[in-house]
Amino acid sequence: MIGADGTQLGIVPLEVALEKAQEEGLDLVEISPNARPPVCKIMDYGKYKYEAKKKAAEARKRQVVVQVKEIKLRPKTDEHDYGVKVRNVRRFLEDGNKARVTIMFRGREIAHKEIGQKLLQNVAEDVKDVGVIEQAPRLEGRQMFMVLAPNPKIRAQLREQKGTETRPAPSQNPGRDGESAPAAE
Q1: In Å, what is the CA distance from 179 to each residue of 94, 174, 182, 183, 185?
Q2: CA nearest to 31, candidates 43, 13, 18, 15
Q3: 152 vs 108 pLDDT, higher one
Q4: pLDDT of residue 155
Q5: Whole-number percent of the chain with pLDDT over 90
């Protein structure tokens, strides 16, 4: 048995352990039931459950959720539109998300799959400094797609850069009409 302050109280019968916990106004909680003899601790069980819930919530908050963003192109996509789409893919990868690039074929365009392949290779080449190909180009029906993932090395560098950026002090923020904002009291 372990006391409320964390001290070892030794091996005691169940009745004595329950009585001691009741004297202190706390609960007797079995920590490791598979041990011989089982280990119990005197503690506030409600507080223990609350802290465990808080730890689980904190772990979920720190967990990074990677989204898959999609960009759609066609074999006849013009240069400027292509540039805008590639810039978006680059932004998605820099933000730590995956990017799915889809080529949609219409009508007889499907006869020229090599154009779609070349377009996807060009996208991969244009973003190779921030992303890597996670899933190679593949054709499903009238769509050809590939999945790009953020480059782990670049991701670490971006994280370091964001950590070194400084924000202006609140007193330096201008108010309306360019005047400095009044200090809060």
Answers
A1: 36, 6, 9, 12, 18
A2: 43
A3: 108
A4: 64
A5: 32
Distance CA 165, CA 37 (A): 55
Q: Which residues contact 72 (CB under 8 A, 6 or more apart)?
A: 102, 103, 104
Residue 89 identity (one-letter amino acid): V
- In this predicted structure, the answer to whether residue 159 has a pLDDT above a threshold of 70 is no
Tokens of 103: 């080529």
Within 13 Å, how many C-alpha atoms sit on residue 81's CB side?
Answer: 9
Selected residue with higher pLDDT from 134 and 64: 134
Packing angle of the helix pair 113-126, 79-94 (nearest 10 deg): 50
pLDDT in tens, 74-83: 999 899 999 9
Tokens 């932004």 -> residue: 91
Place of tokens 């730890």: 55
Are the C-beta atoms of residues 131 and 99 closer than 8 Å to each other?
A: yes
pLDDT tens readout for residues 62-75? 877 778 899 999 99
